[in-house]
Amino acid sequence: MADNVNVNNLKRGMVLNLPEGLFQVIEFAHHKPGKGNAVVRTKLRRLTDDAVLDRTFNSDTKVGLAIVDRREMSYLYPEGDHYVFMDNESYEQTSLTADQIGQDALRFLKEGTNVTVALHGGSPVGVDMPTAVDLLISHTDPGLKGDRSSAGTKPATVETGATIQVPLFVDTGDVVRVDTRTGDYVTRVQQ
Questions:
Q1: pLDDT in tens, the chain (191 residues)
Q2: Strand locations in 80-158, DSSP E?
Q3: The whole model's pTM is what?
Q4: CA-to-CA dists, residue 122 to 1, 69, 118, 119, 126, angstroms
Q5: SS3 state at 138
Q6: Which domains does the chain possess?
C-alpha cells in the first residue's frame, strides 16, 4: 500500500509511513556539513495526535510514502464520545474519536464546519481544520476604558467552550474570527 521515496525528494505535505506511525512533512532542509555525507533535516507532524518530531535522515535513505486520501467533510453533531462527519460528495457519515480529530481542532469545532479528513486504508487518521473559523463570544467581561495592564486584551469564552484573548472592545454576543492554528483572535466579524 506504500511506496518508498528517497528523502532527497521529500515535499511539504507528503505523508510518510514511519515505524512510529503516519507523519506529514512540515519542513525539510538539505544540509551538507563540511565533512561527511549530506543529510536531510525534517520536521514531521504525526497525524494521529499532532505530535511534532524532528528527524534527520542520511541523504541516501528511503522512507515509506503513505497513500492518503483527503476528503472534504462537514461536522454534524457529537454522539457520545464520537463526532459525526458527513462526506460532502457521497453524503456518507463517519464517526471520529477525539484522538482522531486532535485536541487543537476540537477547541474550535462547531456544527457545520467544513474540514478535510485524511484517510489511510479507508480509516480516518487526522483532521485538518480551516485556517480560520467564525465563533460567537458566549461570555466575556466588559472591557474597562484605560485598563492597559493586560495589553488591551481580555479573556473570552467562545461558543465551543474554548477561551481566547480578545481586544477590550469585544463584547458577549459578538462574532469573532479565530486562527485555528494558533488560537489567536483575528478580527471581529460584522453580522
A1: 458 888 888 888 788 888 888 888 888 888 888 887 888 999 998 877 778 889 999 888 899 988 888 899 999 999 999 999 999 999 999 998 887 887 778 899 999 999 998 888 888 877 888 999 999 999 998 876 655 555 688 999 999 999 999 998 889 999 999 998 889 999 999 87
A2: 82-87, 93-97, 114-120, 123-128, 132-140, 153-158
A3: 0.72
A4: 12, 8, 9, 5, 12
A5: strand
A6: 3-65 (2.30.30.30), 69-128 (2.40.50.140), 132-189 (2.40.50.140)
